């Protein structure tokens, strides 16, 4: 019997640093500079065991609770060198353009890693990105199918309710995704049941584990429509440009008629729309190549939503601005100027890496076989 499952090997070639966080942060007591370009992230349990052997456990506890110094300064005060605690180092990382030895204290958002402390990209993150792209493509090609949902979008929550953007759009997005993806008729009485989702026929693996030297620290940079940048003291561990992230997509043809060719075509149309409705509004910003996707944290609102696709370029600005106004995050923001700027949000997410200004999360999508 012919195998109904086809496996494709796919590569994401990183053009702009990619961050998928694990929800944890490193503070000044968790890392030290080994030289001007690298930091060492410390295994605090191992360090505690080492310091206990030197009868310094109590002093170390006081430092963790109330100490104002950086970890390296405290160690030097105890006459302990970096070489002595080197067995307690989890990993070393390139600082890139983000931080220097004399920089103020900045917390670092960690990249997700496997049990062997190697960075990777979860298949769920990649599949979520592809799901958004495929939905966007269907809205572009079959806009009439979503006309009713477009007219009711955003009206299910009062402007007095204090909700996040995710909560604000939750019910609407469930209905829109149901229209696109719930086609299997496994539960005909309840179309919204997840068993009807044809994306169950698309299996995306976790990426292959990457080496630690694929990580680089990146600082958050907000680009404005006039070409001016604003640097934010937020640091992230990111997968560096030039890295190749490898994973597989398995398509079960008994469940879905989607093909990898369909995905590649959707990627191209998504990039075209993203450039037209968003990127082109920012002076000095290069458009996405048409074979590129945007992945991970810090890549921005527009790359993860379908507002412009549902409402078009001009109406989409007003709708996106209204979403910011009506949600908790936007109540005290400067989105009142979005209509004048001709784009909402009026900032694009960048970072500085290897002396270059790069959009966060941009990757070339390449199917190898």
Description:
By secondary structure, the protein is of the alpha+beta class. Helices cover 31% and strands 24% of the residues. It contains 11 helices and 14 strands. The protein has a 6-stranded mixed sheet with strand order 2-6-9-8-12-13, with no helix packed on it. Strands 7-10-1-14-11 form a 5-stranded antiparallel sheet, with helices on one face. It is globular and about 70 Å long. The model has no long low-confidence stretch (mean pLDDT 89).
Q: Tell me the distance between the termini.
A: 22 Å
List SSEs in N-to-C order.
EEEEHHHHEEHHHEEEEHEHHHEEE
Q: How would you classify the helix and strand content by structural class? A: alpha+beta
> Average pLDDT across residues?
89
Low-pLDDT sequence parts: none
- The general outline is globular
Report on the biggest sheet: 6 strands, mixed
Question: What level of helicity do the residues show?
Answer: 25-40%
Our estimate of the beta-strand percent is 15-25%
The neighbouring-strand order within the major sheet is: 2-6-9-8-12-13
Please provide a brief summary of the model.
The chain has 369 residues and is of the alpha+beta class.
Write the layout of secondary structure elements.
Blueprint: E1 5-14, E2 21-26, E3 31-33, E4 38-42, H1 44-53, H2 57-66, H3 71-77, H4 82-85, E5 89-94, E6 108-111, H5 123-141, H6 147-152, H7 165-181, E7 202-204, E8 215-224, E9 229-239, E10 244-252, H8 260-277, E11 292-294, H9 307-311, H10 313-325, H11 338-341, E12 347-353, E13 356-359, E14 362-367
Parallel strand pairs: 6-9
Antiparallel strand pairs: 1-10, 1-14, 2-6, 3-4, 4-5, 7-10, 8-9, 8-12, 11-14, 12-13
Helix pairs in contact: 5-8
């Amino acid at each position: 019997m012919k195998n109904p499952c086809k496996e494709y090997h796919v590569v994401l070639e990183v053009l702009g640093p990619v961050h998928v966080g694990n929800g944890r942060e490193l503070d000044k007591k968790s890392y030290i500079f080994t030289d001007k370009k690298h930091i060492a992230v410390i295994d605090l349990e191992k360090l505690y065991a080492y310091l206990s052997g030197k009868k310094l456990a109590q002093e170390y506890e006081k430092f963790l609770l109330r100490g104002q110094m950086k970890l390296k300064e405290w160690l030097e005060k105890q006459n302990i060198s970096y070489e002595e605690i080197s067995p307690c180092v989890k990993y070393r990382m390139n600082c890139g353009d983000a931080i220097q030895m004399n920089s103020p204290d900045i917390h670092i958002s960690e990249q997700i890693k496997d049990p062997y402390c190697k960075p990777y990209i979860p298949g769920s993150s990649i599949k979520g990105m592809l799901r958004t792209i495929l939905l966007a493509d269907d809205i572009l090609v079959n806009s009439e199918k979503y006309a009713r949902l477009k007219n009711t979008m955003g009206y299910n929550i009062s402007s007095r309710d204090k909700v996040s953007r995710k909560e604000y759009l939750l019910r609407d997005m469930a209905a829109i995704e149901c229209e696109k993806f719930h086609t299997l008729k496994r539960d005909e009485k309840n179309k919204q049941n997840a068993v009807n989702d044809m994306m169950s026929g698309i299996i995306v693996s976790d990426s292959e584990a990457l080496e630690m030297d694929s990580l680089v620290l990146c600082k958050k940079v907000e680009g404005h429509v006039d070409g001016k940048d604003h640097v934010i003291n937020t640091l992230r561990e990111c997968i560096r440009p030039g890295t190749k992230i490898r994973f597989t997509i398995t398509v079960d043809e008994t469940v879905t008629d989607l093909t990898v060719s369909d995905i590649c075509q959707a990627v191209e149309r998504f990039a075209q729309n993203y450039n037209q409705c968003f990127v082109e509004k920012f002076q000095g910003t290069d458009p996405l190549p048409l074979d590129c996707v945007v992945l991970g944290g810090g890549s921005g609102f527009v790359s993860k939503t379908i507002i412009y696709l549902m409402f078009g370029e001009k109406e989409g600005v007003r709708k996106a601005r209204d979403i910011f106004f009506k949600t908790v995050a936007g109540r005290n923001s400067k989105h009142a100027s979005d209509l004048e700027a001709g784009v909402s949000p009026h900032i694009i997410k960048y970072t500085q890496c290897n002396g270059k200004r790069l959009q966060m999360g941009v990757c070339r999508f390449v199917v190898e076989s």
